[in-house]
UniProtKB/TrEMBL annotation:
Residues 25-483 form the Aldehyde dehydrogenase domain. It comes from Propioniferax innocua. Belongs to the aldehyde dehydrogenase family. InterPro entries: Ald_DH/histidinol_DH, Ald_DH_C, Ald_DH_CS_GLU, Ald_DH_N, Aldehyde_DH_dom, Aldehyde_DH_Superfamily. This is Succinate-semialdehyde dehydrogenase/glutarate-semialdehyde dehydrogenase. The active site is at residue 260.
Amino acid sequence: MTETKHNEVGAINSVPKELHIDGQWRPGASTFAVEDPSTAKVLCRVADADADQGVEALDAADRAQGEWAATPPRERAEILRRAFSIMTEETERLALIMTLEMGKPLTESRGEVAYAAEFFRWFSEEAVRIDGGYMTSPVGGSRVLVARQPVGPCVFITPWNFPLAMGTRKIGPAMAAGCTSVIKPASQTPLSTLALAEILERAGAPAGVVNVVTTSTSGEVMGGLISDPRSRKLSFTGSTPVGKKLLEQASRTVMRTSMELGGNAPFLVFEDADLDAAVDGVMQAKMRNIGQACTAANRILVQRPIATEFAERLRERLAALTVGRGVTDEAVVGPLIDAEAVDKVDSLVRDAISRGATLELGGRAHDGDGHFYEPTLLTGVPTEAEITSTEIFGPVAALSEFDTEAEGIASANDTPFGLVGYVYTTDLARGIRVSEALETGMVGLNQGVVSNAAAPFGGVKESGLGREGGFAGIEEYLETKYIGLGLA
């Protein structure tokens, strides 16, 4: 497998390795290692903040809040627009950084840079469209004035699987609304966020508006920030168990929260579906980001008359995928994030087989360096298999069959999660009917990717609260104030 010559050392060296607090780069209390998951070797070491430094970051955000809220919306918008332009111009550098610390192939990393930058462009346009209201009181004699104001300092906790986009999806609307923030990236992938902070600095973000705290002790550092009454908004992307704990902590000060949590996405393929389109869609929904996405198709439910043909076509597509380092020319499937992730995926596959599923392809980890797992296809997966109720977060397609539309919908909804569902059918009435019946916050109807900066991203049930992106995204960072105007 050939590797295109990339300046990997140069890309890593281009990223600051310190904490970004109040417009300054500062050392941490210690450092921790960042590894390349494709080699299991250390890329670099970055600052490891302690609890006191977390508070210093919140101090900076709190000091900057008043002036940033008073900054004209057009000025806030121009900073975001400049950041969008810089990210676009530096796509190759940012993509290489992401591939090295997270593992996804460069093609996907480039796509994420474009997706991440789009949140800055979208919310630069939304910054100047924050409105309010004015009306005559129904009983007369007074007026109702409605104003929209920033919620205040925000605390952001982002995951490792989309290290750049999950940052811009939170920072973009917060800055547009006039909110300052403290962001803590995942310890596995801090470099993308540190690069983002440096770009925002170059784009003109004032000191204290965006502060980045990297740490290996998230609970210790972020616990103090969440309990601090100066923090008025918490946005978290990650697992449902951690989200529930954070909600408990946030309740103590009645913080506003946005939670984008776990998923268990059903992918429904009806007998009248365009099979070529459905296979393309499931490849996108399952294999994007090496299957390490909350939107990944976790349960592929195929109507019985077409199940065999669909499985054969999917097996052929999966077998053609090349596994390798993301910087290689041929690699389509990169590594999982760490050894624990490989063990989890393999355990789910073994459990499914022990309960009656058929292994059609793959089903093993690669030998040697890095955290690789083969593209895997399971058919006849029984409902009692753990893989039907647990996020796989790996390149494993788990197929089950259903007979009637009602049965398919019931199977799809048989989960406490409700982030996204996918439906493939050529019957428009059925497509709308099933989409409305799915208990999810999002539906991909004849499309395998739903992520879009212009659309409201989020789930229902145990998949989360609130929405990110779209027109709804900025609402999460605005308070509504009513002013009664007495005219007597």
